[in-house]
Design goal:
This protein has 8 helices and 12 strands. By secondary structure, the protein is an alpha/beta fold. The chain has a single domain, classed as Rossmann fold (3-Layer(aba) Sandwich). The strands form 3 sheets. Strands 6-7-8-3-9-10 form a 6-stranded mixed beta sheet, sandwiched between helices. The protein has a 4-stranded antiparallel beta sheet with strand order 2-1-4-5, covered by helices on one side. It has a two-stranded antiparallel ribbon with strand order 11-12. The structure holds adenosine-5'-triphosphate (ATP). Adenosine-5'-triphosphate (ATP) binds next to helix 1. InterPro entries: AAA+_ATPase (IPR003593), ABC_transporter-like_ATP-bd (IPR003439), ABC_transporter-like_CS (IPR017871), P-loop_NTPase (IPR027417).
Length: 256
C-alpha cells in the first residue's frame, strides 16, 4: 500500500509561520478531508506536499521515497494535483487537456494506452459531449471537472485536490465526491481533499483534518473532528452537528 507521509512541515511567508509543524498522512484506500477557515493553511499544505513551497522544516515521503529529492516526473507518477482555480485563457481542447495528465508516462507522443486512459477519464467525469470543445468555451464548473479528469488520467496512487468542487453545483459536487470516495474505497487511490463544505467533508472523508492558523486543531475518523466545540474554535461559529437520514450535517447557526 502506498502512503503519503508529510511530517512536521513548517512554511514561513511574510515573516510568520503559515504552516507550523503540520503532519498529515494519506494511504491508498483513504479519503482525507482537509478543512479549516480562510487562511488556515490548507492550500499552503497542499502546495508544500507538491513541492511548490520551500520548507523551513519537515519531510515528505511517498512510497518510501523522499519527495523533496525526487525528480518532478517521478513525483508526478505518484501524486496528481487539482489546483484551486482551473486555468483560464487556455485555448486547447478538453481532450488535449486531459491527455496532459499522461505526461509523466508518455514519450514524445501518446501511445494507444495514453489515448485509452484519456478517453476513460473523460467518460468517468461525464465529459464526453465536451471532449472537443475548447477549454476557453467552458463554464467554471465544467473546467473544474476537466481538471479532475486530467488528474485521474495521471493514474497516480495519490490525488491531492484543492477545493475541487468549489465551482460545482450540488449535483456535480455529490457526483465528484462520491466518485472519489468510491475510488478510494477500492484501495486504488488515496485522496487528500481541501474542502470548505463541512457536511460534505464529514460525509465523504474516511478521516478529517481541521486546520486553524497554520496548525492542526483536530483530526478524527469520518467527521469526528467536527464538533460544535471545534467548529466554534476554528470558525467562530455556533453550529449544529447532526445527522439527517443517516447523512452527517454541520449546520452553521450564528457567528459567535
Ligand atoms: N506570500 C505570502 N506572504 C504572506 N502571507 C502569505 C503568503 N502566502 C500565503 N500567505 C498567508 O498564509 C496563510 C495561509 O494561506 P492558505 O492559502 O494556505 O490558506 P487556506 O486555508 O487555503 O485559505 P482559503 O480557505 O481562503 O483558500 C494566509 O493567511 C495567507 O494570507
Amino acid at each position: 500500500m502506498i502512503t503519503l507521509d508529510a511530517r512536521n512541515l513548517t512554511v514561513t511567508a511574510g515573516g510568520r509561520a503559515v504552516l507550523d509543524d503540520v503532519s498529515v498522512t494519506v494511504a491508498q484506500g483513504e479519503m482525507v478531508g482537509l478543512v479549516g477557515p480562510n487562511g488556515a493553511g490548507k492550500s499552503t499544505l497542499v502546495k508544500a506536499i507538491l513541492g511548490y513551497h520551500h520548507l523551513r522544516a519537515g519531510q515528505i515521503h511517498c512510497a518510501g521515497r523522499d519527495m523533496m529529492r525526487s525528480a518532478a516526473r517521478d513525483r508526478a507518477r505518484l501524486i496528481a494535483y487539482v489546483p484551486q482555480a482551473p486555468p483560464e485563457g487556455f485555448p486547447v481542447s478538453v481532450f488535449q487537456t486531459v491527455l496532459m495528465g499522461r505526461t509523466p508516462h508518455m514519450g514524445t507522443r501518446p501511445a494507444r494506452r495514453d489515448l485509452a486512459v484519456t478517453e476513460w477519464a473523460i467518460a468517468q467525469l461525464q465529459l464526453d459531449n465536451l471532449a472537443f470543445r475548447s477549454m476557453d468555451a467552458l463554464s467554471g464548473g465544467e473546467r473544474q471537472r476537466v481538471m479532475l479528469a486530467r488528474a485521474l488520467a495521471q493514474e497516480t496512487p495519490l490525488l491531492v485536490l484543492d477545493e475541487p468542487t468549489s465551482a460545482l453545483d450540488i449535483g456535480h459536487q455529490l457526483f465528484a465526491l462520491r466518485f472519489l470516495s468510491d475510488l478510494a474505497a477500492t484501495g486504488r487511490i488515496g485522496v487528500l481533499v481541501a474542502i470548505h463544505d463541512l457536511s460534505m467533508a464529514a460525509r465523504f472523508s474516511t478521516r478529517t483534518v481541521l486546520m486553524q492558523q497554520g496548525r492542526v486543531l483536530a483530526e478524527g475518523a469520518g467527521g469526528a473532528a467536527l464538533t460544535p466545540a471545534t467548529v466554534r474554535a476554528a470558525y467562530g461559529v455556533d453550529a449544529m452537528v447532526t445527522e439527517l437520514n443517516g447523512v452527517p450535517v454541520v449546520l452553521p447557526l450564528a457567528a459567535t
